[in-house]
Sequence to fold (380 residues):
Amino acid sequence: MDFNLSEEHLMIRDAARDFAKAELLEGVIERDNEQRFPKEEVKKMGELGFLGMMASPEYGGGGMDTLSYVLAMEEISKIDASASVVMSVNNSLVCWGLDTYGTPEQKEKYLSKLTTGESIGAFCLSEPEAGSDATSQRTTAIDKGDHYVINGTKNWITNGGTSDFYLVIAQTDREKKHKGINAFIVEKGWEGFEIGPKEDKLGIRGSDTHSLIFNDVKVPKENRIGEDGFGFKFAMKTLAGGRIGIAAQALGIAAGAYELAKKYSKERKAFGTEIMNHQAIAFKLADMHTSIEAARMLVYRAARDKDNHENYDLSGAMAKLYASQVAMDVTVEAVQVHGGNGFVKEYHVERLMRDAKITQIYEGTSEIQKIVISRAILKD
Ligand code: CAA
Fold:
């Protein structure tokens, strides 16, 4: 597979790198400490086109390919994984979902605001008792003729408090199981829609994760996405692409930690020489570099599959499974290379280590990726 990046790809990668260094680095430790959402920074990401990269230009999107998006995700995640998850959910779950399956009216009303960052979106599938087991939706959306009435609770929703528009998955007809599930666009502020408490998290602490409560929320029929019963397929299709974005996030977290460890190993001296001259450290860096390169190939390959309109369920799941493991392994080793300083916040690697863990959990745990992979490879 040819991964030669075009001039345009390189420009996008460099623009994301420059933005992350100039706008995200300063303040990233404070935002993590205080669990503060990067509001101003996300606004700038919208202005620069990072929030609707793949969406149609007629609705304000960048019309770019998935590889461009992955390159930008990687660079932004090297510095601030909290900002990159906002970017990932908005781009690959919300904008892509609406652009691909929304009506022209839905795109005009919602997508055109989401692509520019005027509004932020959230994707609401998980529930207290339906995390990995996504078909077991307890939230209901009862058909009342010209509208639906939604009741239930969603959990661990990224951008939960800061979003304006929420894509909500709910069960309309339980007898039909997953074929009775629908997806809806719900606006913040609608009667009966309550934002629950914010989660106090191990990592990606700058991102805004909430539970959401729906009490008889009236949703007009024109806000349903796709045909009646399309909601579960909508969620699965959208998540398959979302997993490529999270794989790129994991890759960026790993690469960011590796770059810091490499730099530190050239500066820090022990036993009379820079620590890079000790094989104990040099071999760690060799392992880190090798696993990051392997993860990068899987992530770019999944992006290429999506861009070439090939099935990307398998390649996306493999990319996420492997890159998230690499993110965990590399960040732990980066802390070790830093020794005592690695345990201190100002060296950044401890934050990257905490941030890495979520990439093995959200948008499908590693175990879910293995279900997707094993089903794909065993089906024939
Ligand atoms: N594309 C299209 N259709 C798909 C699909 C895909 N990738 N995957 C499944 N489907 C369809 C199947 O074809 C099937 O439809 P038919 O009956 O018409 O054939 C239907 O969906 C049900 O599929 P399964 O029988 O395979 O369903 P399952 O119950 O065995 O579950 C699963 C499959 C892969 C485990 C799925 O439940 C899953 O992905 N779970 C994890 C959910 C998840 O990722 N949650 C993350 C929450 S979102 C989040 O984290 C966002 C955030 O805030 C950061």
About this structure: Residues 231-267 form the longest helix (37 residues). Residues 232-378 form a domain with the Butyryl-CoA Dehydrogenase, subunit A; domain 3 fold (CATH 1.20.140.10). Residues 89, 123, 125-126, 132, 134-135, 157-158, 178, 232-233, 236-237, 239-240, 313, 362-364, 368, 371-372 surround acetoacetyl-coenzyme A (CB under 6 Å). Strands lie at 121-124, 140-143, 147-158, 165-171, 181-187, 193-198, 209-220, 269-270, 273-274.
